[in-house]
Amino acid sequence: MARWATPTLHVVPNRFEVRWGEVQVAGLLDLLRIADASPDRTPGAMALAYRAVLDVQHAQAEARRADGRTGEERIQAWLSEQIPIPLA
Predict the structure, then answer these.
(1) For the CA atoms of 79, 80, 82, 87, what is the dihedral angle to 10 degrees?
(2) What is the pTM of this model?
């Protein structure tokens, strides 16, 4: 049994046309699930670490979308909160 599940994510296989027909290629989440199911501990641990990175990136992207400000507006807001260092 996999150590994590992603019920909200739907992985759509990538399809590529080649001379003799169509080939389906596994997506990144599919590959992580395969590694996670490995009886060897190393691939499972690596899959868990990679998945954690993907989860953080997804959460950050969602937070940016929910924020509603442009990148420039977020940068300006961050800069306005910083303490200026006088140049002597």
Answers:
(1) 80
(2) 0.47
